Amino acid sequence: MSCALTSLPEWAAFEAAAKQSPIHVHDLRIIHAAGIDLDISGQGSSPALSDAAQALLDARGFAPMRERLLSGGIANVTEARAAWHTALRAPAPIKEVAAERQRLNAFVRLADSERRWRNIVHIGIGGSDWGVRLAVSAFGYAGTWRQVHFVANIDGHAIQGGLSGLDPHDTLIVLASKSFTTAETLQNGQRALEWLQASGVENPYEQVVAITARPDVAQAWGVPQAHIFKLWDWVGGRFSLWSAVSLTTALAVNADVVAGMQAGAAAMDAHFAEAPTERNAPVQMALAGIVNRSVLGYGSLNIAPYDFRLSNLVPYVQQLEMESLGKSINLDGQAVGVATGPAVWGMPGTDAQHTFFQWLHQGSDGAPVDFIVCQHADHGWPEHHKSLLANCLAQREALLKGKTYDGALKECLDAGMTQDKAEWLAQHRVHPGGRPSNLIVLPRLSPYTLGALLALYEHKVFVQGVIWGINPFDQWGVEYGKVLAKGISAELSGKAADADSAAHDASTAHWVKSFGKSL
Fold first, then answer.
1. 156-181: burial string, b at 16+ Cβ within 10 Å, e else
2. Burial of 382 by CB count in 10 Å (0-12 exposed, 13-18 middle, 19+ buried)?
3. Per-residue pLDDT of the chain (519 residues; tens, 9 = 90+)
4. Is the C or the N end of the chain the one with fewer CB within 10 Å?
5. Is residue 323 among the annotated active site residues?
6. Degrees, nearest 5: CA angle 229-254-142
7. Active-site residue (options: 15, 100, 184, 323)
8. How far is CA 63 from CA 268, 417, 467, in A?
9. DSSP line for 101-144
10. Of the candidates 404, 402, 428, 424, which has an alpha carbon nearest to the alpha carbon of residue 413?
């Protein structure tokens, strides 16, 4: 189990070293990992901090816990199961994983050879949605011969829009739900099935596929056994991208994309397992994040991918980090004692520069930034890419270096302003600087590099969970809300006793009654 972090002398030494380790703008620190470069020059550093970090990792039992994760041991202790998503992308996977890979590839080859299903409606939510959405937008951004619609939200407008304009006779419905009890997925799936039936599709269930850890439940729902692909209990939902949940990706943009992403992630797994602490990209990202959140007090982390194709990377990482690290109780049931998981948010550059970068530069709080960019583009307009790269580097440099009052004053005077006006305006042009960032450089966006990038963030989150002493693989807070929703849903349908309403707070009770009258 995990004792309170703040009780450890190793934490006190780490915290003290972090406070005395500034960003050295003239030092270059780049880690090469699985084909991508992680530039951590924009994070505080010192020999004392490095030594304290290693001591802290040792005190938290990082090495044996990493081994437990990668070997399929009980890493998710509150639910007594493994978190063995790395097994899904292993070059030589275990027998059952290899068998599902073969089944998926055979399904895709047959569909492609017959030119079937020009439309796919992918129905899933959270981890059953974001990874697939990211991969399809990254590698199918210019369009594919199959049209893919994603439906996640329980809002009826989502499924209505997802089915709109499609030919039901040439549409495949993909239901992705680990438990096959997810309310949003099953309700939307039922509407899609009714849409097929109403359109006169002779065998509507033959146009439905399920990806789940409960094949028996999916089969009872009506999905043919041959159309059910297996997940495993040891695969967390937010890591299911590496499983048959990527069937939609394979159909939309090629099965080789899925294989390439798995290969890149496996390479990052190997790096994470073998690289020493100072050269271990996920470990160094995690340590920098601990400093920024728990020592320096930054409440959020900004993700800034300077690549239009990575628009969906932000919500993917947002779910990965916030669902995993949104905890304040350690494994012993004690308060962690320091600030944990930051709020994760962002937008692709350069759109972000015209939206919230002003806040990053001169706001009272600021936030660390992960800049992500591809060195080479895959389009034919080099001037565009040069401008993109220049903007990425310039924004990062401005956050690092800032601008002093004297520098701003000189600018104003050089522009011909009077002394009084220059002195006044210069105060508004000061940038504090010293704001931390990472720069992650992909040689180009490929399935391999995207897979490595996602695994980099996965392992970073794991390391932070180890240091904070929390379990990054459960999500009890979300589950509690789901339980309450079931009761309220029954009340709105008039199927619950009055006593249930009395248990609510005044506001909830009012709106349950008000909404119930309008339904």
1. eebbeebbeebebeebbbbbbbbebe
2. exposed
3. 568 899 999 999 999 999 999 999 999 999 999 999 999 999 999 999 999 999 999 999 999 999 999 999 999 999 999 999 999 999 999 999 999 999 999 999 999 999 999 999 999 999 999 999 999 999 999 899 999 999 999 999 999 999 999 999 999 999 999 999 999 999 999 999 999 999 999 999 999 999 999 999 999 999 999 999 999 999 999 999 999 999 999 999 999 999 999 999 999 999 999 999 999 999 999 999 999 999 999 999 999 999 999 999 999 999 999 999 999 999 999 999 999 999 999 999 999 999 999 999 999 999 999 999 999 999 999 999 999 999 999 999 999 999 999 999 999 999 999 999 999 999 999 999 999 999 999 999 999 999 999 999 999 999 999 999 999 999 988 888 888 998 899 899 888 766 566 689 999 999 999 998 888
4. C
5. yes
6. 130
7. 323
8. 16, 60, 12
9. HHHHHHHHHHHHHTT--SEEEEE--GGGTHHHHHHHHHHSTT--
10. 424
- C-alpha distances (whole Å) from 236 to each of 81, 135, 180, 244, 501 are 10, 18, 14, 13, 34
> Parallel, antiparallel, or unpaired for β 36-39 and 437-442?
antiparallel
Q: Which residues contact 398 (CB under 8 A, 6 or more apart)?
A: 361, 431, 433
> Is 354 among the catalytic positions?
yes
Radius of gyration of the chain (CA): 25
> Going by C-beta distance under 8 Å and a sequence separation of 6 or more, which residues neighbour residue 216?
none
Task: Give yes or no for a contact between 311 and 348, defined as CB atoms under 8 angstroms apart.
Answer: yes
Contact (Cβ atoms closer than 8 angstroms) between residue 185 and residue 177: yes
Catalytic residue among 19, 482, 486, 510: 482
In whole angstroms, give the CA distance from residue 373 to residue 490. 48
Look up residue 175 and give its amino acid.
L
Residue 271 burial class via C-beta count within 10 angstroms: exposed 0-12, middle 13-18, buried 19 and up? buried
CB atoms within 10 A of CB 390: 11
Decide: 180 and 218 in contact? Cβ < 8 Å: yes
Looking at the DSSP bridge assignments, the partners of residue 514 are: none
Tell me if residue 369 falls in helix, strand or coil: strand
CA distance 486 to 476: 16
Residue 446, both tokens: 């490929």
The answer to whether 482 is a known catalytic residue is yes
Runs of H (alpha helix) within 375-446? 382-401, 405-414, 419-428
416, two tokens: 């011909």
Contact in structure between 493 and 515 (CB atoms under 8 Å): no
